[in-house]
Amino acid sequence: MAKPSPATPRVVIIRETLIELCQLLKFGGLAGSGGEAKQRISNGEVLVNGTLETRKRKKLAPGDTVTLDGQTIVVQVGSPPPVTG
Questions:
Q1: Assigned fold of 10-77
Q2: Euclidean distance between CA atoms 79 and 39, whole angstroms
């Protein structure tokens, strides 16, 4: 399976309608831990919808985009696809 290029937004599906920014960074694989996510947000390294965001607990809604290190993820609500194989 090809890894998406940094310019291609990747969809991250969540179960709830809102998720905190620090949680999404960890869940979406942009940060290795919750502590790393919080630090990177505090350092001013994260963009939400193209705007610098420093609030760790910023609530994200479906359709929001989050960018860190040139990688962008898009928040969507739903059920993850079934695992096959």
A1: 3.10.290
A2: 29
Residues in the chain: 85
Name the residue among 84, 60, 80, 81 with its Cα closest to residue 72: 60
Helices (H), 1-85: 21-27, 34-42
Taking the C-alpha atoms of residue 21 and residue 38, their distance in angstroms, rounded to an integer, is: 9
Nearest to 14 by CA among 85, 52, 62, 81: 62
Whether the CB-CB separation of 26 and 75 falls below 8 Å is answered with no
Q: Which two tokens stand for residue 18?
A: 């809102």
Cα-only R_g, the chain: 13
Evaluate if residue 39 carries a pLDDT over 80. yes
- pTM across the whole model: 0.76
The pLDDT tens digits of the residues spanning 1-25 come to 445 455 677 777 776 678 899 999 9
